[in-house]
Amino acid sequence: MAIDGGVQIFGIPFYGLRQEDVLDGIASSDFVINTKKAQNEPLPLVLQNNLSSYQSAPYKYITGNWDDKQQISYTDYAVEPSKRTLPGTSHVYPWLTDDDFFQPSLIKLDYTLNRDCYFDGNLSLSTKDVDDNDFLLPIKPLFFKYFDVEDLKGKIGGLPKFEMRHERIGGNEALTAILRIPVKKEGGFITLKRTYLKAIDNNYAYDRKNDKGYFVNIAFTFKPLPIH
Asked: Which residues of 142-160 are buried (b: 16+ CB within 10 A; e: fewer)?
């Protein structure tokens, strides 16, 4: 599916855009990450599946609006961001998605942190039959290339920029992490999610096929630096 403005017949380009027009289009995309930190390289786009933006306020992709039928698969982001091809196009340009921001596995603590001293990731209990023990935040270091710790604690569009929901899915204990990344579109953000199920027999290898992570219970005491 070509969504970059070109026309293809049996996969063969019928006409194309000038390279400078393409680069200008990418640089002005609504999906460009919105960061206050200075970067010495092109700002990446942040993409998600199932965007479901309102037709009255669509997200501009490159030369046209994002087509929500466009699916992002692991093979699209299996290489490092700078070598990725933008989905639905033939253009190589850096872009990021959930796998770049979320750890493949997660640690659950056997106690509750002091919420006055430590940031709990806006943890909420979505069902009554789960405990209130805390989890370590499953955020990869790449997040802090573009944002600060305070950004995790803030809000966007009236919603937490980061939150975790402790729940049960199909009877299984689970933790869903939600990260909302601000992008260039005015007031816009991309919602990235990853669900972690309780590991069985401490097998916490990431399930790539079903896009599921796993968490393990760790019984230990440690003293992370407080986040004020």
From this structure: ebeebbeeebbeeebeeeb
